[in-house]
């Protein structure tokens, strides 16, 4: 908002903070010295990109927009250049000519394609390099082959930009078949860009141009490439390497084809090793201590099981029994969390009692699976969630309704009207029971309010609230006491694909088509944090069990981990070959499992920032992942109509996370994940869209029956 900007600039000038004022002015493109009235107009971001407010340097916040991938954390000297098309990085990693731009102007971005060579020689350049790489030693060939795809794209775009359409067409036809199979979708988009005009509005194009494609190559392979290009005087390719690629050089053995294949495939190449160096507090917070009234009240507690409104705590873990502070946990007060109410404590007690009867799962003892099939869901089921105590299930539908069912014999009831409530004796023991209106009792409640398909739903931990997000760009908060909408949160301008409550309630996260994830608090109508950095839609969001971090999965085929405290991106995981659709943290907070359209489940060690496993077996998109309550089993549900159970204990034991692996990314995944597969369970014809382990480790699954 321009007035605000002007006010901030005036304040900075009054406080003699000239440097900050300059930076903010450059950032917002406010030129001209007159801060009073006619300040040059503020450049706005292009649609689909959320602008993040610029912050004076030194505060450590990220600047820039989603389109320009702001450097989040790390050494600003090395990273500052990445968002600007006109900067070059020379070998020492210093930056010459950094132009700070907010949302790169399309024409400025594309004009980098001006310094062109002879269009007729492009095929020769490329095939020359191809020949050189294919004839190099095996150990270098796998690494250098990573160059094919980014060079192919940039050379093609350069030809198109300079209006050599026929050369571009023949270049594309000759070489597009050589690219790795997982780039097929990107190449399809590329093949439709055949004229300079097409390039102007194309987002994928812009991303490819503005974010440097990252390749991780050993020093030996890099020297080999450099020598070859300099001997051949092949400036065209060398310019592209300098201008558009970021080569992350490591010392040590080159990686094998299999190691590289495991990690590549995202829209912007791999993550830089720097990106995963920040410290992450992945441990769990200490459970609050309070007396458990056992035994004497046990009997009466059992008969009136349904009476007190039980509230759900944070997921109970084996670790929470010990009173010691987890050495990897964040400080208890690192982010403000809501205090426990009496009803929460009551529910913690219920949870502990349930946990005592929990089944210990393992390869010898698999969970029973109870499948909830939505029949005749002609409204199109688009989202499902189940409360922590497994008492309610919610479905979001394509006809923009949200439907809540009770799964227990206890029906759903609304609170009585205000007039009736005033007649109730507030001191009576069963006041919570009396405020409910029996006339409203039913198994199903339908919530109307959205004006588009509902893509995400999430119950609050205390089961008083429900979130839903929709194609209409809003997130709505519903009361489960009155079954009405309390708030509509507007921040996304485009469809919102997912939303989730924090395990402690109060905070929630949403992610959408504008490539940004937002952190909200239920009592603020504007977001507290904006997480910008993904190059495509944010398709799924998940809170870490300690609520200090948020994981987001995106259609750019990467997973990012964000720090809630300062909004920084602390991990970037690449390796999936298609958009990410499911995320699950292990109960101890150390590991993350991710599932995507490529049918693979990848396992990540959060502390070391490494991929530690790959589970192959599904043949279609994985929409649901969930760890059992003690983390022994990982369940995955897919569009291939199966639920698969994996041995999580075995997958995470004997991990090689020594310093060398962390430094170079030489990961060694077991050849075969079949020995981790404990079981595959087919449905008749129902894709699995949600999984949930009850407090006693019964697995609940849900999906809508599809007749085709």
Q: How many individual helices?
A: 20
**How big is the Rg?**
27 Å
How many domain units? 3
Measured as a percent range, the helix fraction is 10-25%
- Average pLDDT reading: 80
Low-confidence stretches: 36-104, 295-322
CATH superfamily of the largest domain: YVTN repeat-like/Quinoprotein amine dehydrogenase
Number of strands: 31
The coarse silhouette is globular
CATH topology name of the largest domain, in short, is Methylamine Dehydrogenase, Chain H
Going across the major beta sheet, what is the strand order? 6-7-8-9
What's the CATH C level of the largest domain?
Mainly Beta
Largest sheet: 4 strands, antiparallel
Pfam families: TFIID_NTD2 (PF04494), WD40 (PF00400)
Family: Belongs to the WD repeat TAF5 family.
GO molecular function, one term: RNA polymerase II general transcription initiation factor activity
GO cellular component, one term: transcription factor TFIID complex
């Amino acid at each position: 908002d321009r007035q605000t900007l002007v006010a901030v600039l005036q304040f900075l000038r009054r406080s003699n903070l000239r440097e900050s004022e300059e930076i903010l002015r450059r950032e917002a493109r406010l030129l001209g010295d007159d801060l009073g009235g006619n300040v040059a107009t503020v450049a706005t971001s292009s649609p689909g990109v959320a602008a993040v407010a610029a912050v004076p340097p030194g505060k450590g916040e990220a600047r820039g927009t989603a389109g320009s991938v702001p450097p989040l954390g790390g050494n600003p000297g090395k990273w500052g250049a990445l968002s600007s098309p006109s900067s070059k990085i020379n070998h020492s990693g210093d930056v010459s000519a950094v132009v700070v731009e907010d949302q790169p102007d399309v024409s400025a971005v594309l004009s980098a394609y001006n310094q062109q060579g002879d269009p007729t020689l492009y095929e020769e350049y490329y095939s020359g390099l191809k020949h050189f790489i294919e004839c190099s030693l095996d150990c270098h060939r796998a690494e250098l082959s990573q160059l094919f795809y980014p060079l192919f794209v940039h050379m093609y775009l350069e030809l198109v930009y300079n209006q050599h359409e026929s050369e571009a067409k023949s270049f594309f036809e000759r070489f597009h078949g050589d690219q790795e199979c997982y780039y097929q979708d990107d190449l399809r988009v590329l093949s439709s860009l055949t004229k300079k005009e097409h390039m102007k509005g194309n987002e994928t194009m812009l991303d490819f141009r503005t974010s440097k494609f990252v390749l991780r190559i050993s020093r030996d392979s890099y020297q080999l490439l450099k020598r070859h290009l300099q001997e051949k005087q092949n400036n065209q390719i060398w310019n592209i390497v300098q201008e558009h690629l970021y080569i992350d050089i490591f010392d040590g053995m080159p990686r094998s084809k299999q190691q590289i294949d495991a990690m590549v495939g995202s829209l912007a190449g791999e993550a830089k090793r720097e990106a995963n160096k920040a410290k992450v507090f992945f441990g769990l917070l200490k459970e609050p201590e309070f007396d458990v009234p056992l035994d004497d009240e046990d009997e009466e507690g059992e008969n009136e099981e349904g009476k007190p409104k039980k509230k759900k705590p944070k997921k109970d873990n084996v670790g929470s029994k010990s009173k010691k502070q987890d050495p990897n946990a964040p400080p208890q007060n690192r982010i403000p969390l809501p205090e426990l109410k009496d009803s929460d404590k009551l529910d913690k007690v219920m949870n502990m009692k349930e946990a005592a009867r929990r089944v210990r799962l393992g390869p010898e003892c698999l969970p029973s699976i109870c499948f909830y099939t939505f029949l005749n869901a002609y409204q199109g089921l688009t989202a499902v969630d189940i409360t922590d105590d497994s008492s309610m299930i919610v479905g979001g539908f394509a006809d923009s309704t949200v439907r809540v069912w009770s799964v227990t014999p206890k029906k759903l009831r609304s609170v009585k009207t205000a007039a009736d409530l005033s007649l109730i004796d507030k001191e009576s023991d069963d006041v919570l029971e009396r405020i409910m209106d029996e006339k409203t009792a039913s198994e199903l409640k339908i919530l109307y309010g959205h004006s588009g398909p509902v893509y995400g739903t999430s119950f609050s931990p205390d089961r008083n609230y429900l979130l839903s997000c929709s194609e209409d760009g809003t997130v709505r908060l519903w009361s489960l006491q009155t079954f009405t909408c309390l708030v509509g949160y507007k921040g996304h301008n485009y469809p919102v694909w997912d939303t989730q409550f924090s395990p402690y309630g109060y905070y929630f996260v949403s992610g959408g088509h504008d490539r940004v994830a937002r952190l909200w608090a239920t009592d603020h109508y504007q977001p507290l944090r904006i997480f910008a950095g993904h190059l495509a839609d944010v398709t799924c969001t998940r809170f870490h069990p300690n609520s200090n971090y948020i994981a987001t999965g995106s259609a750019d085929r990467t997973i990012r981990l964000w720090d809630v405290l300062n909004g920084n991106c602390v991990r970037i995981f690449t390796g999936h070959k298609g958009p990410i659709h499911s995320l699950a943290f292990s109960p101890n907070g150390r590991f993350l499992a991710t599932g995507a359209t490529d049918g693979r489940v990848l396992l990540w060690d959060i502390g070391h920032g490494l991929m530690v496993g790959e589970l192959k077996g599904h043949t279609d998109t994985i929409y649901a992942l969930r760890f059992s309550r003690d983390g022994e089993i990982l369940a995955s549900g897919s569009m291939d109509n199966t639920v698969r159970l994996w041995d999580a204990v075995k997958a995470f034991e004997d991990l090689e996370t020594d310093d060398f692996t962390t430094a170079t990314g030489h990961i060694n995944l077991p050849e075969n994940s079949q020995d981790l597969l404990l079981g595959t369970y087919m449905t008749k014809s129902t894709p699995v869209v949600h999984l949930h382990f009850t407090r006693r480790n019964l697995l609940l699954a849900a999906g809508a029956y599809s007749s085709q």
